[in-house]
Every structure is written in C-alpha cells, then in structure tokens.
Amino acid sequence: MRKKLLVLALLAGTLSAQADEYPYLIFETTDGGRMPVEVESLTIQIVDGNLMAGGKTFSLASLSRMFFALTPDATSGIEDLRATEDGAVEVYSLNGVSLGSYENVSAAKQSLQRGIYVMKGGSGTFKVAVK
Question: The whole model's pTM is what?
Fold first, then answer.
C-alpha cells in the first residue's frame, strides 16, 4: 500500500512539473472559440455538467478540447497553413495508414471525418485538422 502511494505521489509530481512548463491551459469550444486560463494555482471543478477553471465556467457539452500553451493566444500546433493547396493530395492517418488520394485539400476535408490527418501534396507533407 505504501509503495502505491509513493508511486502516485511521484507521478503527480511529474505531471505537475510538466504542466509548469506551460503557463496557460487553452479551452476550445465546439464553435471554435478559445479561452486561455493561467495554470498557476489553477483549480478545476466539474459541477452539474459545467467545468469551472480559473474563474471561468464552461458547459461540458460545448468543450471540444483543451491543451497547454506557452502564450494565451497559442494554437495546438496543428495549422491549416496550406489548406488552399491546389493539386492532388494523398491522405494518411496519424498511424501511417493510407486513406486514399483526393483532387485537392478541400475535397479531402469534405470526405474525411473529424480528426487529424497527414496530407502529402506537391509542396510537401503537412498535418491538417478536419473540424
């Protein structure tokens, strides 16, 4: 029993140390809105279908994701920088499984389910988030 408690304490310390490197926790809603919350002394509670963090309240049904960031206006690191790329693209899952070829990025995004994909086109290979 003591060993389990020690392992849990060490694990909690490790997770805390990793979060300390990022001063913000970004909450993203299903409509694409983002709300940064400072991590320092942050407490999170879930009450009656709502998540309360840093003096802000979010409906759990409206949250799509959350991630740690270095700045309050940060993104998740997945950008649609080449979403307008013309020409054929090959699409892969994050596991490297080929999902087919498409005429262009727009056609691929219309055919794919919500998620993150790797696309290979004329200008290189890039990640795309389909929302």
Answer: 0.46
